[in-house]
Amino acid sequence: MDRMKDQSNIKVSASTWEKLFHFFAFIVIIVMFVYAIVMFNRLPDEVPIHFNAAGEADNWGGRGSIFMLPLLSLPMFMLLFFLGKAPHIHNYPVKVTEQNAPKLYRESRLLLAAMNFEMVAIFALITWEMAHTAQGNATMGVWMIVLITIAPLATIGYFLLRMNRLKKELTS
To answer: DUF1648 domain: from which residue to which, for each copy (predicted)?
Structure first.
């Protein structure tokens, strides 16, 4: 059975939080590009492009590598932005009906907007870490790895809890 055909294609407008997440994600992308441009000539010939589990640089690339994450963040942002506009194709922990679709779709759109902002912010932090480390400064170490692992998992967990509460609310 094709679940997408079973789910209602109801239009749900963006919430204020969703709009704010998208707005700030876009601002962070612009700031990330500006930062990379400003830092480019201040960087040594090689910058770190990978950090190990202890947060230490363990692979290096040319200084143009500082543009790697800003360039990746733009299509990632666009993909998640447009995917959020089609909540009827998302997976849900409950059967989607015309009655519960508006609430479920709002939650799903908000989850994608939050994750979009979070991923862009993490890319910006890593870009900063790359430049900071290339200039011989101390890194965030293991805290960087903890942050980029725990933050997205916590966001997903938070939204799963919200969806489960919504599921209970809609079935009672």
So the answer is: 27-73
% helix, strand, coil for the chain, step of 5: 70, 5, 25
Which residue has 């202890």 as its token pair? 54
∠ CA 132-71-139, nearest 5°, is 15
Instruction: Report the number of distinct structural domains present in the chain.
Output: 1
Would you write out the chain's pLDDT as a tens digit for each of its 172 residues?
444 455 677 888 899 999 999 999 999 999 999 999 999 999 999 999 988 888 888 899 999 999 999 999 999 999 999 999 999 898 887 788 888 888 889 999 999 999 999 999 999 999 999 999 999 887 777 788 888 889 999 999 999 888 888 777 767 6
Closest by CA to 14, choosing from 119, 149, 120, 113, is 113
- Domain that includes residue 82, residue range: 3-171
Phi/psi for 31 (5° steps) reads -60, -40
Q: How far apart are CA 165 and CA 20, in angstroms?
A: 24
Question: What distance in Å separates the CA atoms of residue 172 and residue 164, rounded to the nearest whole number?
Answer: 12
Whole-number Cα distances in Å, 128 to 39, 77, 117: 9, 19, 16
State the Cα–Cα distance between residues 166 and 60, nearest whole angstrom.
Answer: 47
Residue given tokens 């939050």 in the structure block: 114
Instruction: Assess contact for 139 and 132: CB atoms under 8 A.
Output: yes
